Each structure stands twice: as C-alpha cells, then as structure tokens.
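Could someone model zinc ion with this protein?
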Amino acid sequence: MLFDAHLHISDEYNPLDENKAKELIENAEKNDIKYLVSNSTCIRSIDENIFLLKKYQSIICGIGMFPTEFKTEKDLQYIDVIKNKVLELKKEGYSNRMIIGEVGLDFKEEKSNKDLQQRALLEILKIAKENDLYLEIHSRFAVKQTMQILEQFGYNKIIMHWFLDSKKYIDRAVKLGYFITVGPKYLYDQNLMDNIKEVPKEQILFETDYPASVSGKICGPEAIKDIFDKYCKDFEIPKEDMQSILEKSFSKIFDPKT
Ligand SMILES: [Zn+2]
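Reply:
Sure, complex below.
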C-alpha cells in the first residue's frame, strides 16, 4: 500500500482550490496512492484540511502551524487552536486519520524568533503526547536544536520530514525509532543514497511535500510511485515486500490499537 506521508493540499501560500484538490485526490487514487497526509501550516489551512478530511476518505489531516508563524508572544495562542482542533476531531471519531503537522523549528531567517519557536514546539509536543498522536517535524537550519528538544521531551512518535541531509543526526533519530521521509529530491540527488542507507526500511516513509518545487519541478502525489520504485531498485527489495513494510508502518502511525 502506497501513501504520501507529507504534502500540503492547502498551506499558508495556497488557499484551498476545491477543483484542483479534487483533481489531485482523484489522480492519486488512479495511481494507487491510497492516503494523502495533508499537513497544515496556518489557521486557514487547518480549517481547509479538516474540510478535506471530512469530504475524502483518502485524506489524513495534519493539524499544525509552520514554525515561522510564531513571531511574537501573542502567536502562542495558536497552540490553543491546535489543541482545540485536535480535541474536536477526536470527539468526532477521526483519531485514526489525524496527525500533528507541520510543526518544528525553522531558523533560516535571521529574524526568526528562535526562543518562541522552541517554546511553542515544546507545548505542541505535550498536545501530541496527551492525545497519543504522531508529529511531522520540520527542522530547517535547526536540526541540532530540534533533536535536542525532541530527545529531552522523550516522546518518540515522530516523523522527521526533509531530514535526510542531516547525516550527523540520522543515526540518533533511527535509534529513537523515528520515521524518516524520503522525498522527490532522491530522484535527482544520488548523494542522498548514502544517508538513506542508514535508515532501516521499517522506518522509511515516502513523501512529495507537494506543492514544494524540487529541481524546478512540482511533484504531485503520483510521484510517490517513482520514489518508491527507485528505492526498491536501489535497495534491491521486492516491491511487494516494501509495500507490506509500508502498510505495517502506516498501521503503527495511524491505527496503533491494531
Ligand atoms: Zn511541508
């Protein structure tokens, strides 16, 4: 079973276009991509991804806030929004089709409020733990600090997104049992092979991060097939075997009771 472990059908730059979303979801279905984990990055996208969750069986909803949205103290109110949306969805019976994401740290911009981002991440980790949910973690220019917070907090239901450049930390993330995503960059960058090798197959997930552009190209969820094919070929694993590993990983993340 294939699924896209991280994309954004709605995000802070792209409000939901219902027709475009329908096309994307149907196209994924045609290509046997069974589930799409649509991560939120702002308040509007949380509501739009919840709308998609309720409309389409294949959508798994990420409730989250992009780290750079935490600019001033008053932005800490977003944490309550995340908490309330999570509780609401749980009450409505969506526990098995939700996740906390996209959250984490992003120190790329000089003016980013590093202290606030770290405080927010800690609070969001508490929400995930209280509700027994996985988190999709972003760590651009802040891998060291992100790993520090995650390790100190000690909650290991973690998916590290776009993390494979950080060779130094892969080993630690693997030991802690985190899942690590392989994205479209792998299709263009042979150097990633060395890092992917460090991750056991049981901890690998595939993602497109749609609509992010990689090597000037935007990959829709159907690209999961190309990433999956390349992985099976490079690592000499029969496709059926990798499919069943992915199925097990999926159950572990979204249906821990079975
Ligand atoms: Zn993303």
